[in-house]
């Protein structure tokens, strides 16, 4: 994210920092780019000076989501200098926290620009610092890296990916082994690592020790992941009754997913050939995120041509899953299910499996989702007497729910096999969805009809999301402050009964900049700043369990529409 803070350095100081960065940059592309900016700024270009301010007044913050930003020169961008600082800082933290023996880290990377370079730099710097470094043998999905942390009993993991961000972005995700079971880092570890990174940044990365004595992980790591993921399919009915289209969205999912689908006995998928191979330019999509308008157009066209029962889409690093079903009322002939719809269906499946495996104590386990995800999962947990946990957003929190058997968040992330992968996993989620679809097909029931059955049993749950993009980040803070200082008494015609402020923690949840607004009719509105983009996000949920399914649908969707209008008016 570009920092919009007003300049804090004068031009001579700014140029001195830029030259210092230039002197340690090993990347010809970013070095040439920065050198041209310095020359232009020295010649009096106000535009070049402003660009340098945006790169050097701040730096990309290392947090629980690691690092993520556009590839370019400077500390407020993703580049080899910043990655070297991060790798060396994380190495220092690992060495400080090693409990006897040498700490280890497994490193993975996807197909984005410079992912392989950043991964090799990390391996060399970790090895040079005295950490046992294990580099995955090729570009692979993020879930394989999360799996490898536990499979190899590593102290930590690093995945170089920006997931579904724009093409010129890249990122750096950090996982911990041991008692963290391969989950992403949470506070206060992020701040501790960030402090070590800043220590490293006081010197030159050119002086950091490097070593080529890192290991290359064997191919059997991916094979073990495939074996574990195939085991997610549990239905005993034929598994090849449902036809489907698959897209990797120009990412790294296809090689692994194809093998998993074949081993699980599913029908051979029809691939979206234009998007099946990794391509860091993402040429067929404006934004490589299956949630974005137009991103699945080629999938729908392929599905229409094939007459497919389903569309299965992974995002570029294959940690998210999108699903579409035939819909004659849609111009595309298919409708992408929301993350909440898929999350509810997979949660119901998980609850039924728990019930089938119950002993004299009854079903055991926890269903979990983020606080901004639909309340539908809580309804499933109540019906099956399972524990339920809502967590802060992000799988670093969902994955840590005690007794977890299934977790999800509305942004197309699902965790269906917590004993294997403690992160969202778009491939194992696809196996669970296809397993469900084939089991239903044996009774001549479709996924769309299963959603109707869900509404009949648990109620109809409707959701909407508003994303308010800003050019001035201070606007987000102003809106949150206004909601706190002058909270609404009504939204539209519905009375607000309670507002929970999670800023200082609430109900066992850690502190987070989130407001939860509860209304008299049972509806709910969540408001929070995005963690990765200059957006304010508003999540709206309503439900109804009275009347027919159609009556429930009309009631719930009507409430959501009214609340959406009220919130748009409230926040401008």
From TrEMBL:
Top class in the EC scheme: isomerase
Cofactor(s) needed: Mg(2+)
What InterPro entries is this protein classified in? A-D-PHexomutase_a/b/a-I, A-D-PHexomutase_a/b/a-I/II/III, A-D-PHexomutase_a/b/a-II, A-D-PHexomutase_a/b/a-III, A-D-PHexomutase_C, A-D-PHexomutase_C_sf, A-D-PHexomutase_CS, Alpha-D-phosphohexomutase_SF
Determine if Ligase is one of this entry's keywords: no
Stored CDD domains: PGM2 (cd05799)
Check the UniProt entry and state the signal peptide residues, or none: none
SUPFAM superfamilies listed in its UniProt record = Phosphoglucomutase, C-terminal domain, Phosphoglucomutase, first 3 domains
Task: List each copy of the Alpha-D-phosphohexomutase C-terminal domain by range.
Answer: 499-547
Q: Which family does it belong to?
A: Belongs to the phosphohexose mutase family.
Return one GO MF term. Answer: magnesium ion binding
PANTHER family for this protein: PHOSPHOGLUCOMUTASE 2B-RELATED, PHOSPHOMANNOMUTASE 45A
Q: State its Enzyme Commission number(s).
A: 5.4.2.8
What keywords appear on the UniProt entry?
Answer: Isomerase, Magnesium, Metal-binding, Phosphoprotein
Q: From the Swiss-Prot or TrEMBL record, give the protein name.
A: Phosphomannomutase
GO terms of biological process kind: carbohydrate metabolic process; purine ribonucleoside salvage
Q: Is the Magnesium keyword given for this protein? A: yes
The record places domain Alpha-D-phosphohexomutase alpha/beta/alpha at 60-198, 224-324, 350-453
């Amino acid at each position: 994210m570009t920092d919009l803070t007003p300049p804090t350095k004068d031009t001579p100081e700014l140029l001195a920092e830029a030259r210092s960065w230039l002197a340690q940059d090993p990347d010809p592309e970013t070095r040439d780019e920065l050198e041209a900016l310095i020359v232009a700024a020295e010649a009096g270009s106000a535009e070049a000076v402003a660009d340098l301010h945006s790169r050097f007044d701040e730096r990309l913050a290392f947090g629980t989501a690691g690092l993520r930003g556009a590839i370019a020169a400077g500390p407020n961008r993703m580049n080899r200098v910043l990655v070297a600082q991060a790798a060396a800082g994380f190495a220092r933290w690992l060495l400080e926290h090693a409990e006897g023996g040498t700490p280890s880290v497994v490193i993975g990377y996807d197909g984005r620009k410079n992912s392989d370079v950043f991964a090799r730099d990390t391996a060399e710097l970790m090895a040079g610092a005295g950490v046992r470094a294990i580099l995955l043998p090729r570009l692979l999905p993020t879930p394989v890296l999360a799996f490898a942390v536990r499979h190899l009993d590593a102290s930590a993991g690093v995945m170089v990916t920006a997931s579904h961000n724009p093409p010129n972005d890249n990122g750096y995700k950090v996982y911990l082994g041991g008692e963290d079971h391969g989950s992403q880092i949470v506070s206060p570890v992020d701040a501790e690592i960030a402090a070590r990174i800043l220590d490293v940044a006081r010197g030159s990365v050119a002086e950091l020790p490097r070593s080529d004595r890192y290991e290359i992980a064997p191919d059997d790591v991916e094979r073990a992941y495939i074996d574990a993921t195939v085991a997610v399919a549990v239905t005993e009915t034929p598994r090849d009754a449902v036809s489907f289209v698959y897209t990797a969205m120009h990412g790294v999912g296809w090689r692994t997913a194809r093998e998993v689908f074949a081993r699980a006995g599913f029908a051979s998928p029809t691939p979206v050939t234009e998007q099946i191979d990794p391509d860091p330019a993402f040429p067929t999509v404006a934004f490589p995120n299956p949630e974005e308008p137009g991103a699945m157009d080629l999938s729908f066209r392929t599905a229409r041509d094939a007459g497919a029962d389903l569309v299965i889409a992974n995002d570029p690093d294959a940690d998210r899953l999108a699903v579409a079903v035939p819909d004659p009322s849609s111009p595309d002939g298919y409708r992408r299910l929301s993350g909440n719809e898929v999350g509810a269906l997979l949660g119901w499946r998980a609850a039924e499996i728990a019930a089938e495996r119950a002993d004299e104590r009854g079903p055991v386990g926890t269903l979990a989702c983020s606080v901004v995800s639909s309340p539908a999962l809580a309804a499933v947990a109540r019906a099956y007497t399972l524990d339920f946990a809502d967590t802060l957003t992000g799988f670093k929190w969902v994955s840590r729910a005690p007794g977890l058997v299934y977790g999800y968040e509305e942004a197309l992330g699902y965790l269906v096999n917590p004993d294997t992968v403690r992160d969202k996993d778009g491939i194992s989620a696809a196996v669970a969805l296809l397993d469900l679809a084939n089991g239903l097909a044996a009774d001549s029931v479709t996924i769309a009809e299963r959603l109707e059955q869900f509404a009949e049993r648990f109620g109809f749950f409707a959701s909407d999301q508003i994303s308010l993009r800003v050019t001035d980040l201070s606007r987000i803070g102003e809106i949150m402050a206004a909601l706190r200082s002058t909270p609404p008494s009504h939204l539209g015609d519905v009375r607000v009964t309670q507002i929970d402020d999670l800023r200082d923690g609430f109900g066992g949840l850690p502190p987070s900049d989130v407001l939860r607004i509860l209304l008299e009719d049972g509806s709910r509105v969540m408001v929070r700043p995005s963690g990765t983009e200059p957006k304010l996000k508003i999540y709206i949920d309503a439900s109804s369990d009275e009347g027919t399914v159609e009556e429930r649908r009309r009631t719930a969707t009507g409430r959501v529409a009214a609340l959406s209008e009220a919130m748009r008016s409230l926040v401008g």
